[in-house]
Amino acid sequence: MYLYIETLKQRLDAINQLRVDRALAAMGPAFQQVYSLLPTLLHYHHPLMPGYLDGNVPRGICLYTPDETQRHYLEELELHRGMQTQEPPKGELPITGVYSMGSTSSVGQSCSSDLDIWVCHQAWLDSEERQLLQRKCSLLESWAASLGVEVSFFLIDENRFRHNESGSLGGEDCGSTQHILLLDEFYRTAVRLAGKRILWNMVPCDEEEHYDDYVMGLYAQGVLTPNEWLDLGGLSSLSAEEYFGASLWQLYKSIDSPYKAVLKTLLLEAYSWEYPITAC
């Protein structure tokens, strides 16, 4: 089992890197700069970096190691602007991971595509810390906009989907009507920029109904370590209300993004053929 899990992890990492490379290759220099530096700007917090604000802003991404582009950026700041890099405190860091999702690195990506970024954070962040992190993300959105890149950040509590919370994620969330479909889209399209691997990718399709039991079995066998994985939970069955709400939402979205809306509507149609037992 251990060798099987290690093989899966290597495949996940290889596919993820391929998707990162594909996303960068399809876009211009400004997009490449923003896409590459976002993890660094969330891991560190310094007045010389975009997104800085006063206060005890949560910083630090679990398992983060700068790549060559990010190291070069940090070295430039240290060499030419005298910045002293301060590593986040030791222990479990507040940001579980940073992931792009949606059209990025898919057939729906175009040269004018925007970026949807999920910043998944620990459940123990208090209200003030979440507000500070949200303000930092808003500043990073403004920084990206100044470079001509549209970015939208969404803060995701790691327990959000497990507790069936329907807090607003902005327009794409459409209230509580797309709860499972939203998680499904994340699992299908997420590209890990930094942080923990997504645990759902390690669960076979035929174990989806027993997601929690299967995961606990892997933990009990010692082949997976809980604090190394992002676990947003399994995908439960889709309700008729979610189909209806999602269909209405895609009808509305088709006004501005007809091609993307068609792709998502076709996916909904494919899922509907298997209702009420949908294998997302």
From TrEMBL:
GO terms for biological process: cAMP biosynthetic process. Keywords: ATP-binding, cAMP biosynthesis, Cytoplasm, Lyase, Nucleotide-binding. It is found in: Cytoplasm. Its EC number is 4.6.1.1. It is an enzyme of class 4 (lyase). Pfam families: Adenyl_cycl_N, Adenylate_cycl. One of its GO terms (cellular component) is cytoplasm. GO terms for molecular function: adenylate cyclase activity; ATP binding. It comes from the Bacteria. Belongs to the adenylyl cyclase class-1 family. This is Adenylate cyclase. It comes from Klebsiella pneumoniae.
